[in-house]
Automatic annotation (TrEMBL):
The chain crosses the membrane at residues 6-22, 34-52, 120-139, 159-178, 190-214, 391-409, 438-459, 538-555. It comes from Oreochromis niloticus. This is LMBR1 domain containing 2b. Pfam families: LMBR1. It is a multi-pass membrane protein. Residues 662-679 have a biased composition (Acidic residues). Belongs to the LIMR family. InterPro entries: GPCR-associated_LMBR1, LMBR1-like_membr_prot. The gene is LMBRD2. Keywords: Coiled coil, Membrane, Transmembrane, Transmembrane helix. GO terms for cellular component: membrane.
Amino acid sequence: MSGAALGIEIVVVFFLALFLLHRYGDFKKQQRMVLFGTLLAWYLCFLIVFILPLDVSTVTYVCLSAAYRQSTGSASTTTRSRHLFPPSSHRCPITRYVRTLCHKPWSYIPDGIMPVFWRVVYWTSQCLTWLLLPFMQSYARSGGFSITGKIKTALIENAIYYGTYLLIFGSLLIYVAVHPELHLSWYELQTIGITAANTWGLFLLVLLLGYGLVEIPRSYWNASRHGHLLIKTYFKASKLMTEKADAEENLEDVMEEVRKVSESIKYNHPLRKYIDTILRKCPLDYQEKMGRNMDDYEDFDDKQNTYPTEKSLVKLHKQVIYAVQRHNRTRVQWQILLQQAIHLEDVAKNETSSTHQFVHSFPSSEPAGWFSRYIYTPTVEWYWECFLKRWFYRLLAIVLTLFSVVVVWSECTFFSTRPVLSLFAIFIQLAERDYNYLYIEMACFITIFFLCTCVYSTVFRIRVFNYYYLASHHQTDAYSLQFSGMLFCRLTPPLCLNFLGLIHMDSTISHQEKLQTAYTSIMGSMRVLSFIANGFYIYYPMLIVILCIATYFSLGTRCLNLLGFQQFMDDSEMTSDLIDEGKELIRREKRKKQRIEDGENRRREWKERYGNPREDYAARNRSSHEMKETSYSDTVSSSNTERDRIELLHDAEPLDFNADALTDDPPDSEGINDDIDQM
């Protein structure tokens, strides 16, 4: 099984990343380069999360086997064990636990594979996050009409990112240069670059982690309180509707500017090709309006009209891209929030149901699958939504709270090795005594997954980052996909390095003569920069305690509320007004949706009773051409009569229509049959 586990996980992780990209992205509409860049970024980050536990278990086995050989006096050692236990070095701290021959784990990876693997994964992800993805994101938003213009704009916009990275790298380079005892080789330069990236990532990582460790458990606890969750949804609906209306107004203003420019620049103007490019970025309904109002046969006159410049068209093109993106984002977020509000209202109504069957306000028009028919029946759905779900969320919130406490404690004590205070390090050492490699791998994976969830979900929860979102059912735009890939690649490596410090697998922090993982060896020795290894990496994570306390007492929310940014607060009068406004908005949208469904039901019922009017009309036209004895005037009048009847059937939707008033033999049916017989 040597290397088999690595190969299996590489394949499985690829299909997992492909499945998630298909769920959130749109393979048919979005550009291939955007999809490829996002897929590669997600794939590399998932590889780090899934493969790192195998690296830890492999190193644990090598350490245990080397300790066993030392305890028995065996001379056969591997390359790693000779590096770990030279003749004059201190023995591994776990040597005293080795009494029998340790068993090789099924996921063991032979020497020489992991260093090459981590080197390829790490440097590819860094090139993506610092160079390619920011460039692709700016390139897609650029208003230029040529490839050269878009590249120039993308380079200028990314100068701040490149400048920040070069500033950190330059500062560390100067620090090494002024110390004569440090020699600058390629390895040291590589370590400085990695340290600069990890320092930037750790700085943002701790801020996001301090918020997520408290907010994630609290969100699940609040999710068990249906009433609280419903009024908070009303609050979000009120704020989102304001943003949605502002986005629609902004789109209207931009489209009006596009219309004026389009009418001034005619079809034979040299700048007309740029106008056509801008029009293709506009929504379809605006394109149709502008197409109807434009006369392409009118020539332009350079003397009488003032025409925009190419620079102004580039600016207008960028405004169109931003306005359309913002409009689509708010529209998708509104639809998601509307579905959540309707579902929560259905839960509130069904809680008092005596039949114990869940009834939806708007049942799905699609036929129910086998899962809904045989397993997730309305009765099972009622017990889950109205009873079991709240207790499940409460239990999950308690478990996540305990997990968060363990993370905070370990972040504050992971530098202590004698005694070992980090709880994660204690758990791993206990598993080492029993040679329980599966437990080591599962514990590492669950911990890394929890840390990633707290960090990444925070970005999409905080109001400041509301510009980006991840929506399932192919509703995520290209800019959010690129941003997520860039963020994952930027934060995952320092997060995993921080985790290795928590379990004392990073000798730079733990200061132990212990074999390092291949992942840590690729990161380089932080001892080149002692103030980073012995200062920032150890003491900065302690800031999590302060951030967790501030998040628990909602200090950030209260400060934003004082500054005029309305936040959800139970004791605020403005919050109550926004909740009432949001409730009315949801009620209005439900009425609108109900009218649409009623109209569809009336059309469907009318079609079932009288057939398809369009097919009848085509049949009558074919028969009228075959009847030679019918005069031209009768044919014209009959066609007009039938056309009027068809228009009434398609367009007329009486509001007071009552399906119960219809009989099986409507009074107009005889007249219709007589007309058909006369034809």
